[in-house]
Amino acid sequence: MNERTPVRFFDRTTPPHIVTLVLVTGLSAMNMSVFLPSLPAMTVYFDTEYQIIQLSVSLYLACVAVIQLFLGPISDKFGRRSVMLWSMAAFLVATLGCIFAPTVEIFLTFRMLQCVVAAGLVLGRAIVRDMVPQDEAASMIGYVTMGMALVPMIAPMIGGALDLAFGWHSVFWALFVVGAGVLFLAWGDLGETVRGEGRSFADQLRDYPELMRSRRFWGYVMASALASAAFFAFLGGAPYVASEVYQLSSFWAGVCFGAPAVGYATGNFISGRFSVRVGINRMIMTGASIGAAGLTTATILIASGWDTAPVFFGFCTFVGLGNGMVIPNASAGMLSVRPHLAGTASGVGASIMIGGGAILSVFAGWALTLGGGSLPLISIMVISMYLALLTMIYVIRRERTVIADAR
């Protein structure tokens, strides 16, 4: 659907309104972070260990990494609307399963099934590409993914307040209510934008060897994955640090969890203003350098005895700031390596990024149980950011070599 089609709100015979796309994307982000302040209470409720309940973060991320590979091709074949609606309905069922789960094993099972809500993020961007010409898509996608930047700022605070007032079950009830509202909105407003025109998953698989042989593609993917891994390590370890190291209430923990999101929104703004002028490689280098410098300073302060909540969470803003500059530009880089394989590159890159984050979030949760306050977590984060920086140095040198050989 390349021609401009009139959009009428709550009319499913027309393409969806931008507000609908923002909300379905925001629900995906909300599901990832709103319950983080409740992890300590859930550990007590299910009479388990923190490493076990922390799997609700890492296993969820792993499932999202896998399902992202399939949602796009399935929606190409069956349409965006039907896949979106069925995914959100399944999300509501899985959320009820989390609420009424009698054991931690059943809870984790339904938590993994909640990964279907990732359809909001994956298909939201695909719908934009269906609706508008390519030169307008980037701007509109920026508005759609705004939910990914704004929701993590407020969702943990809301979750922490609900947990403090009504217990952790209320957080998932809130997810269910919001999800039901967004499903109703999508049912009434989400018109179909593609009807089986896309390429099948089997066709995309045939493109993988060409993409996987590109060193520059892997360079951009790993730069994005390693930078974002610092944030996913934060997701895996911050709830433990907030409750066990700093003894914060669930509400104040939720407030602190919004620190990286503030930095991420700032980094996104900087990327939007300067990426075209400066170039994506320099923006990635700058973002990774800023993130590494901020986390290095935090590591030195914490190791020197300044292991306080303001120091730890304050400097974690640099994680978001660095990611806000690295991820958009690295994503543009990985898509530009083989322009005719942009869709495949996007799916593979996102899956590697989130899958790697899932692994590191597990490692972060385990490392914190060994003692040492917040130092193990901040050390993992700073190492990850420096590895992203080294990866980008390799990409730049590789590009210079290719250019020199071409001459």
Sequence-ordered SSE layout with sheet pairings:
Blueprint: H1 18-33, H2 39-45, H3 50-53, H4 55-78, H5 80-100, H6 104-113, H7 119-131, H8 134-144, H9 146-166, H10 169-189, H11 201-205, H12 208-212, H13 215-245, H14 250-257, H15 259-278, H16 280-303, H17 309-315, H18 317-337, H19 342-368, H20 375-406
Helix pairs in contact: 1-7, 1-9, 1-10, 4-5, 4-6, 4-7, 4-19, 5-6, 5-7, 5-10, 7-8, 9-14, 9-15, 13-14, 13-18, 13-19, 13-20, 15-16, 15-18, 16-18, 16-20, 18-19, 19-20
Protein described:
This protein has about 400 residues and is an all-alpha fold. The chain folds into 2 domains: about 15-190, Growth Hormone, Chain: A, CATH 1.20.1250; about 205-405, Growth Hormone, Chain: A (Up-down Bundle). The protein has 20 helices and no strands. The chain has helices at about 20-35, 40-45, 50-55, 55-80, 80-100, 105-115, 120-130, 135-145, 145-165, 170-190, 200-205, 210, 215-245, 250-255, 260-280, 280-305, 310-315, 315-335, 340-370, 375-405. The radius of gyration is 21 Å and the shape is globular. The two termini are about 40 Å apart. The model has no long low-confidence stretch (mean pLDDT about 85).
